Amino acid sequence: MTRVLVTNDDGIDSPGIVRLAAAAHDAGLTVVVAAPCAEASGSSASITAHEEDGRVYVAERKLPDLPGVEAYAVAAPPALITLIATRGAFGDAPDLVLSGINRGANTGHAILHSGTVGAALTAAANGRSALAVSLDVGLSPAGPPHWESPARFVADLIPVLCRADSPVVLNLNAPDVSADEVRGLRRAKLASFGMVQTQIEVDGGYVRTTVVDEPSLHEPGTDAALLAEGYATVSAVCPIFEVPEVDLDGVVEAVGQSRR
Hints:
- The protein has 260 residues and is an alpha/beta fold.
- It has one domain (3-258): Survival protein SurE-like phosphatase/nucleotidase (Stationary-phase Survival Protein Sure Homolog, Chain: A, 3-Layer(aba) Sandwich).
- The protein contains 7 helices and 13 strands.
- The strands form 3 sheets. It has a 9-stranded mixed β-sheet with strand order 5-6-2-1-7-8-9-13-10, with helices on both faces.
- It is globular and about 65 Å long.
- The protein starts with a strand and ends with a helix.
- The relative contact order is 0.15.
- The mean pLDDT is 88.
- InterPro entries: SurE, SurE-like_Pase/nucleotidase, SurE-like_sf.
- Belongs to the SurE nucleotidase family.
- It is an enzyme of class 3 (hydrolase).
- GO terms for molecular function: 3'-nucleotidase activity; 5'-nucleotidase activity; exopolyphosphatase activity; metal ion binding; nucleotide binding.
């Protein structure tokens, strides 16, 4: 049976991770949950952890409504949790990694900074396909998050991960509406920006940063635009890889000759 690690960057106590683990369990997967003991949003693929004598704190946890599912709170960001999971830190190494459900959309090139996506990319770099899942709660949510909206697509996307010949990362986002209000699932290219933009104010001695939603900047057909239109979006994201098209032969040869 396929074994899956479920992690996130919102922390072990986030209700989103429970909904994602439940979706994986209902899809017939063997689930182990391991997530940060505190929020680690924006940690990207960081593997910096709280250590004492080289040891990372790990504690068993019980998750609500998921009896029998192993769960661990770890004093580390999700990328490191994913890395050590592939080395057998939480029992047998997982076949797949699911990351989320994140409280907030992860769209556009800003996914570089996401701990949710960072965990998925780390999985791929270590030979496992992964799915990053996020819910667009926005900066001013109107009510409790609709975790069921992204969770409903998990079972449909898992076979894509299992069929892949090499590790692939899928990035899933859903609007924060009830499941029957989602207009459908669309494949989307990454926007140049994410759902929110970072603004800075520079003054003597400090830099102040704020985030704002800028729907006017949403490019048609991108994940940010389609999500704003009420669609769930999925994008296939490349893990770290070499770019052979860049011509480096000339400079390599020149440097090599200069050192002879």
